[in-house]
Amino acid sequence: MLEVDSLICGYHAGKPVVGPVSFHVKKGEVACLVGPNGIGKTTLLKTVLGLLKPMGGTITINGKPGSSYTVKDFARTVAYVPQGHVPPFPYAVKDVVVMGCNPNMNEFSSPRSQDYDTAMEMLDRMGISHLADRDYTELSGGERQMVVIARALAQKTEFLVMDEPTTHLDYGNGIKVLTQVSRLADVGYTILMITHAPDHAFWCADRIIAVGKNGFFQEGSPEEVLTEEILKELYSVDIRLTDVLLKDVERHVKVCVPMAINNIFQRKENL
């Protein structure tokens, strides 16, 4: 679905921010892009989305060069969920979501009843259909993020690109989004997403793309890439990986435990 070859990303004529990097994401995979703050993960996503021109290398999406897509054809192929969204006007939530249907509408046409049906379907899929008639500007940051994801789903694309989709969500809604990500992959969606939580990547990722300082880059399965050594290289903290057995489903899940927690326990023991 996505093939990136020797890609170099940056802004205008300035110094490259990321690259060269090469990786691919197969149809139906969930690929998590991980790395420290400020390393260029969002810059990489924006280049894949065509919002920034590559400084070098190539991007192929669904067998076609990324640069060959018209704006509308690209929107019929790829949907984007930004890290945050500032509400410009007090649209009703269902009107915000129905905007996702635009790539599949004729020029200058108004949303049809089936477009609003699609919007309500996606709101229901995200578990927020009760917000349909609320003003978008009155929602919390977490609720707005869920609406933006529903809007992306309304585009009915095969490829979703998400920039930290759980950033503004509370713990429960964050888990709901990750669960939905896995379900979307099960029905054929391809998903590329940034996450700052290695635990989230263990839960839902098929592929890890790790970007770090001094040109560090590695891709592969979560087990291959998210090792204790690489996590320390990426985040500059000592981390231990442990297996947790979920007895009711008889599955082992990897969990990251920062070694700094020892200092916290020692402080509590001394109180």
- Distance between the amino and carboxyl termini: 55 Å
Number of helices: 10
The secondary-structure class comes to alpha/beta
Largest beta-sheet characterization? 6 strands, mixed
Instruction: Give the overall pLDDT as a whole number.
Output: 87
Low-confidence segments, ≥5 residues, pLDDT <50?
Answer: none
Number of strand elements: 12
Radius of gyration over all CA atoms, rounded:
20 Å
Give the assembly state of these chains: single chain
Q: Write the element-wise H/E pattern from the N-terminal end onward.
A: EEEHEEHEHHHEHEHEEHHEEH
Helix content, binned percent: 25-40%
Basic shape: globular
Taken as a percent bin, the fraction of beta residues is: 25-35%
How are the strands of the biggest sheet laid out side by side?
6-7-8-3-9-10
Protein model, in words:
By secondary structure, this protein is α/β, with parallel strands linked by helices. It has a six-stranded mixed β-sheet with strand order 6-7-8-3-9-10, sandwiched between helices. The termini are far apart. 34% of the residues lie in helices and 25% in strands.
What's the SSE blueprint?
Blueprint: E1 2-9, E2 18-25, E3 30-34, H1 41-48, E4 56-61, E5 64-65, H2 71-75, E6 78-81, H3 93-98, H4 113-125, H5 141-154, E7 159-163, H6 171-186, E8 190-194, H7 198-204, E9 207-211, E10 217-220, H8 222-225, H9 228-235, E11 239-246, E12 251-258, H10 261-270
Parallel strand pairs: 3-8, 3-9, 6-7, 7-8
Antiparallel strand pairs: 1-2, 1-4, 4-5, 9-10, 11-12
Helix pairs in contact: 4-5
